[in-house]
């Protein structure tokens, strides 16, 4: 129990949350472009910079940062939960021994499941707010009118039922493999580099963070596309089965996407996603590692966790 409620886990959680908020703020416009490409299927612009130019031209200079606060709030909560759970479980299981790739994957998966179940409502709301006011090419999308985070929660529960806040949970649970794969590769590459040198440089951390995220993102991207559509929840589709997030609807959406756009339709927006997540993850890990190291040094403590 002391490992779960430890000061060290709290430091890792806060550092992970701060790192993710910093990185997401820097690269937020890339996430806006990715989301538009995933949800608005009839948009003709295929590249990240063209979509961003279109958004700025049609909706204003600050449009790429629309929905920043709810996204940052959700991300801060999400990464705090993930890093805290990951480091607590690792401390309990590893107990001062050297970790392994298999253990990192299992711990990352369990931490991801906990994170999804607790934070999915926040992500559903921020997806809606991020796309509100957007000029869509797809006429099947129903517009919304939310005044803020609290109003969005209220309207979704009132109009769609409380379970709508967990739209996209099924693909999200499948997507826990994304951070699990990411942490597995990150911790593995980190261990390999530490065998050859005493300390990792900022560039080392940035590069292995980028490599780990690129592998995880490419492997799980089709399910991320379906997750975005389900979280948005404003498409007029599959009226005979409105249980959004069920296996049946996930398969339906995958089939429709491939039928309309070919297999590459599942990877629409991947360029923007890779740019955004790889750079964001690399910067996040850099801030995270530096912040944890600085905190433990200031407090006169040495991290008990062995890599």
UniProtKB/TrEMBL annotation:
GO terms for biological process: fatty acid beta-oxidation; fatty acid transport. One of its GO terms (molecular function) is antiporter activity. It is a multi-pass membrane protein. InterPro entries: MCP, MCP_dom_sf, MCP_transmembrane, Mito/Peroxisomal_Carrier. The keyword Endoplasmic reticulum does not apply. GO terms for cellular component: peroxisomal membrane. Keywords: Antiport, Cytoplasm, Membrane, Peroxisome, Repeat, Transmembrane, Transmembrane helix, Transport. It catalyses: acetyl-CoA(in) + AMP(out) = acetyl-CoA(out) + AMP(in); FAD(in) + CoA(out) = FAD(out) + CoA(in); FMN(out) + ADP(in) = FMN(in) + ADP(out); NAD(+)(in) + CoA(out) = NAD(+)(out) + CoA(in). The chain crosses the membrane at residues 12-30, 67-85, 105-125, 200-221. It is found in: Cytoplasm; Peroxisome membrane. Solcar repeats lie at residues 7-92, 99-192, 200-294. The keyword Transcription does not apply. PANTHER family: PEROXISOMAL MEMBRANE PROTEIN PMP34 (PTHR45939:SF5), PEROXISOMAL MEMBRANE PROTEIN PMP34-RELATED (PTHR45939). Belongs to the mitochondrial carrier (TC 2.A.29) family. Interacts (via N- and C-terminus peroxisomal targeting regions) with PEX19; the interaction occurs with the newly synthesized SLC25A17 in the cytosol. Peroxisomal transporter for multiple cofactors like coenzyme A (CoA), flavin adenine dinucleotide (FAD), flavin mononucleotide (FMN) and nucleotide adenosine monophosphate (AMP), and to a lesser extent for nicotinamide adenine dinucleotide (NAD(+)), adenosine diphosphate (ADP) and adenosine 3',5'-diphosphate (PAP). May catalyze the transport of free CoA, FAD and NAD(+) from the cytosol into the peroxisomal matrix by a counter-exchange mechanism. This is Peroxisomal membrane protein PMP34. It comes from Urocitellus parryii. The lineage of its organism: Eukaryota, Metazoa, Chordata, Craniata, Vertebrata.
